[in-house]
């Protein structure tokens, strides 16, 4: 998957459209009218403070260490015992455990991204949008 640079833009939408008809808060997903359940993506934002960032080095590190698109890590990640319920999820959903563990810590594809912005006070903010 090739990453591209995006232009900064702002768009105000005056129209409200409901994209789901049944929200299931407990499971963080929603159902479409067609009967398909959609799981919401994860978005996390962290205030890094007023730090200097070597963007070219960071970009190189991300591209070399964080698989994106359909790519996965070459070996399964080791997980802490607190995260061991993932094995039961793999069993219930009939997914290959090693394939799932190789997918942890990846960016995914589509509209997923890693981004650093700066606020008016000079603080850098890291935002990660993943699946």
Automatic annotation (TrEMBL):
GO terms for molecular function: endonuclease activity; GTP binding; metal ion binding; RNA ligase (GTP) activity. Its cofactor is Mn(2+). GO terms for biological process: intron homing; RNA processing. It catalyses: a 3'-end 3'-phospho-ribonucleotide-RNA + a 5'-end dephospho-ribonucleoside-RNA + GTP = a ribonucleotidyl-ribonucleotide-RNA + GMP + diphosphate. Keywords: Endonuclease, GTP-binding, Hydrolase, Intron homing, Ligase, Manganese, Metal-binding, Nuclease, Nucleotide-binding. Transmembrane segments: none annotated. It is an enzyme of class 6 (ligase). Its EC number is 6.5.1.8. This is 3'-phosphate/5'-hydroxy nucleic acid ligase. It comes from marine sediment metagenome.
């Amino acid at each position: 998957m090739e990453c591209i640079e995006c232009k900064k833009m702002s768009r105000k939408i005056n129209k409200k459209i409901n994209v789901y008809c049944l929200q299931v808060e407990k499971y963080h997903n929603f159902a479409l009218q067609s009967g398909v359940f959609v799981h919401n993506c994860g978005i996390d934002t962290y205030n890094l403070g007023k730090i200097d960032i070597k963007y070219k080095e960071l970009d190189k590190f991300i591209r070399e260490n964080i698989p994106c698109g359909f790519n996965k890590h070459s070996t399964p990640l080791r997980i802490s015992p607190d995260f061991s319920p993932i094995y039961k999820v793999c069993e219930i959903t009939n997914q290959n455990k090693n394939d799932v563990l190789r997918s942890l810590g990846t960016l995914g594809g589509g509209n997923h991204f890693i981004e650093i912005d700066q606020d008016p006070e000079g603080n850098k903010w890291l935002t990660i949008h993943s699946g």
